[in-house]
Amino acid sequence: METVLGRYRNLIILVGVLFLQVLGLAVQVKRSGDAQNTRLIRIWVVDAITPFERVFVRLENGVGDLWHNYFYLRGVRAENRELRQQIEQMRLKQVRLNEDAAQAHRLQSLLSFKEQYIEETVAAQVIGSSGSDLSRSLYIDKGSKDGVAPDMAVITAGGIVGKVLRVYPTTSLVLMINDQSSGVGVLLEKSRLQGVLRGTSNGELMLERVMSDESVSPGETLVSSGGDQIFPKGLPVGTVASVKPGREMFLSIKVKPAADLSRVEEVLVVTEKQEREPAIEETGIHVRAADVLAKRLPSVPDKRPAAAPAQAGSGSSTAAAGSATNVKVQTTNAAVPKTDASSKPAVAPMQAASAATNDSGSVVKTNSGDSVTPPADTIPTSKPIASPSQSEPSPVMKAPAPPANPPSANTADEPH
Amino acid sequence: MNPTSVPITYTSGEQIEVYRFSFPVTIGVPLLAIFFQAFVPRRLPFFSIFDFPLLVTIFFAMARRNPITGLLTGAAIGLVQDMLGPYPIGIYGIAKTVVGYGASSLGSKLDVENAGARLLVTLGFYLVHQAAFFAVARGMVNLNMNWSWSHDLLAGVANAMVGTVLYFALDRFKQRA
């Protein structure tokens, strides 16, 4: 008589194999928080597959180079001319952007912000994918031997691509930002609204956690907020493609990525970041935040002719790049002697430049060597760091109230 | 003769032939399929709708006509495919185990040597694979997956057509057991 085991042997084996796999799955899902351990068997399989991918990529690049360097020379000269023109235009733009950046750095420094800067990167080539339609991930040809570690940002010139998920000796797995398990802290460049960018199961990008009463329009640029501690702040992420009402009180915002995620071939892995305050150019002119803001506000016209001798204040306008440092010390009274401040370009103790005169025109005598406490009603409550060392006639006005601290990039919603 | 012990088949005598494969083919063809699946879609994104490891699983299962080897082949191919991805190992493994078992069981009962049968069998098992994959990914791993009948049917037809051509190419490696 046939036993039950014999009759249903195939089914029993099937159930057994399925059960083992389900058990294995359960163990993995339970331990999914432990991202450091990589199963040995994964390393074996990846080491078996990735060398072939590298060989094919190299062959492909070799054939491509041969074609481009020896056969495809048509239009190279015209393209060269065009590129030179573009470079010239970009140089001009860069000069302007450098000035803007320097100004922003000075302001940030005044408010004691710390930023993360990209210190070091490693270039890597994409050699394959996970082979599954479910996940959006890439394999790159750099691993732990090249200094790559988990949770490092992966970027291109166009924008961010993803983060390193797993590292093997010579290869790494990168989880792209449009994978459904990915999340990036972002902020809208113009409105400075913060949100979390998540991938979906079909590879799209959605911006979440933006309240429905906020104003977001298609075409707005998104940059990384730095709050996830993976991507440094300010890296391009994408642009808003469409905005619709979403679930509950949030908007459903679709985002087009800045980097072409379907055609990524070369990437940069950010291997080192540094947190520091943006450096101020040591020009001898040190500006208070209040003075910078005062310059932007409409000023009261001079009551008296500017009779103060041209002092070394002319140096103040040239000593620092950007208009933010072109602050004039408010000593309108000609009787103010040329102070030592004019000869001391170094950091001087706090001088209430805007509080140096009151409405009657009398002057608070300033001596660059002394600390001066200006009248309380004219002192901005923010902590000034220094004052201009030159004196120059300037309109009389009270220092405005210090600006409220802008939303810090480091307080973004969710870590990655 | 006990009528219940005689397997009822609708095939000719030749169709219940069982095949085997050499060791290099047994190892090399699935690895090649997995490599192809991992490499080609980066260059040709359209190829991501094809599941070459699944087609190879169905082929080997139908050729060997042994449920145990069929399910073990499916399990092995699926697990290796899982290891290349960022998600827990076992999602593809479970789905392809079911397909391997089903295809080999069906292969021993039906004529699966002609193109029409292969097309229909591949289409059917592609949908079974997707259903099992969806159930495991959504139910056990809690991944956010959407089921789209139109997408899966069209992808199934595409895989069936490609699979039919692929099977005829792989037929040359068959050896009669």
Explain this structure to me?
Chain A is built from six helices and twelve strands. In chain A, the strands form two sheets. A six-stranded antiparallel beta barrel of chain A has the order 1-2-5-4-3-12. In chain A, strands 6-7-8-11-10-9 form a six-stranded antiparallel barrel. Chain A is an alpha+beta fold and 416 residues long. Chain A folds into two domains: 162 residues, Rod shape-determining protein MreC, domain 1 (Thrombin, subunit H), CATH 2.40.10; 137 residues, no CATH class. Chain B is mostly helical and 177 residues long. Chain B has one domain: Orthogonal Bundle (Arp2/3 complex 21 kDa subunit ARPC3). In chain B, helix 1 runs antiparallel to helix 2, helix 2 runs antiparallel to helix 3 and helix 4 packs antiparallel against helix 5. About 5% of the residues of chain B have low confidence. The interface between A and B is large, with 48 and 45 residues.
Record the SSE blueprint.
The complex is a heterodimer of chains A (416) and B (177).
Chain A lengths: L3 H4 L1 H22 L9 H32 L4 H35 L4 E15 L7 E4 L12 E3 L4 E8 L4 E5 L6 E6 L5 E6 L5 E4 L12 E4 L11 E10 L5 E7 L8 E11 L12 H8 L16 H7 L97
Antiparallel strand pairs in A: 1-2, 1-12, 2-5, 3-4, 3-12, 4-5, 6-7, 6-9, 7-8, 8-11, 9-10, 10-11
Chain B lengths: L18 E2 L2 H21 L8 H13 L2 H17 L7 H17 L7 H25 L9 H22 L4 E2 L1
Antiparallel strand pairs in B: 1-2
Helix pairs in contact in B: 1-2, 2-3, 2-4, 2-6, 3-4, 4-5, 5-6
Q: What are the low-pLDDT stretches of chain B, counting only 5+ consecutive residues below 50?
A: 8-15
Most extensive interface: pair and counts? A-B, 48 and 45 residues
- CATH architecture tag of the largest domain in chain A: Beta Barrel
Strand order of the largest sheet of chain B: 1-2
- Fraction of residues in H or I helices of chain B: 55-70%
Q: What's the quaternary structure here? A: heterodimer
Rg calculated over all Cα atoms of chain A: 30 Å
Shape of chain B: globular
For the secondary structure, the number of strands of chain B is 2
Contiguous helical run count of chain B:
6
Measured on Cα atoms, how large is the radius of gyration of chain B? 16 Å
The number of helical elements of chain A comes to 6
Q: What is the straight-line distance between the termini of chain A?
A: 62 Å
| Main beta-sheet annotation of chain B | 2 strands, antiparallel
Secondary-structure arrangement, i.e. CATH architecture of chain B: Orthogonal Bundle
CATH topology of the largest domain in chain A: Thrombin, subunit H
CATH superfamily of the largest domain in chain A: Rod shape-determining protein MreC, domain 1
